[in-house]
Amino acid sequence: MRTRLVVLDRDGVLNEDSDAYIKSAAEWRPIPGSAAAVAALKAAGFSVVVASNQSGLGRGLFDQSALDAIHAKLGAELAAAGTALDGLYYCPHAPEAGCECRKPAPGLLRRICADFQLPGEALVMIGDSLRDLQAAEAVGARALLVRTGKGERTLAAHPNLPFEVHADLAAAAARLIAEREQQR
Question: Average of pLDDT values for 177-183?
């Protein structure tokens, strides 16, 4: 099935990640080329959404207004590149909550499938951690790992992962766009 929807993890794919969490708009820094990669995907006909674990909310590390400000900064960065997301999904729960939306659980991706009326096979998930790839696998989506964020650590801990690996979002986007061109 032809991929129509690209799902991006946020921290480590679109912006620099931090083991101390991204807790404010001031701490949010885009990865060079990520906004242009989203614009290129959209120009090639893909819908693009974010699916992100944001357990900092559930842990009390930041509040909803801080998360809204972070997402506003992300939106402004994308707008400056002439693009926007088609959706932004996040799990606000702490790990011990046992919810179905915290990746690697597939709840966020299932919700995206329902909202876009697409089967999991129509999605490609681009992430920097094993849990992103596992969530994609759970819904039958294609999974791509990027080396940015926690990607290098993920590869070091799991050197035989059966997933495509790309340097960053720009490289992964270029691959998807090239494949779409070949299908035409």
Answer: 91
One-letter amino acid for residue 177 of the chain: I
CA 26, chain centre distance (Å): 20
What confidence category does residue 183 fall into, taking pLDDT thresholds of 50, 70 and 90? confident
Distance separating alpha carbons of residues 114 and 81, to the nearest angstrom = 28
Tokens 């357990």 belong to 55
Partners of residue 164 on adjacent β-strands: 144
Radius of gyration, CA atoms only, the chain: 15
**Mind telling me the catalytic residues?**
9, 11
Identify whether the C-beta of residue 182 lies closer than 8 Å to the C-beta of residue 46: no
CB 184 within 8 A of CB 49: no
14: which 2 tokens? 């679109």
Looking at residue 2, its pLDDT comes to 62
The alpha carbon dihedral of 35, 75, 113, 16 has a sign of positive
pTM over 0.90: yes
Token pair recorded at residue 149 = 């964020």
What mean pLDDT do residues 93-106 have?
Answer: 94
Strand pairing of 123-127 and 87-91? unpaired
* Separation of alpha carbons 149 and 111, rounded Å: 25
Report which residue type is found at 43.
A
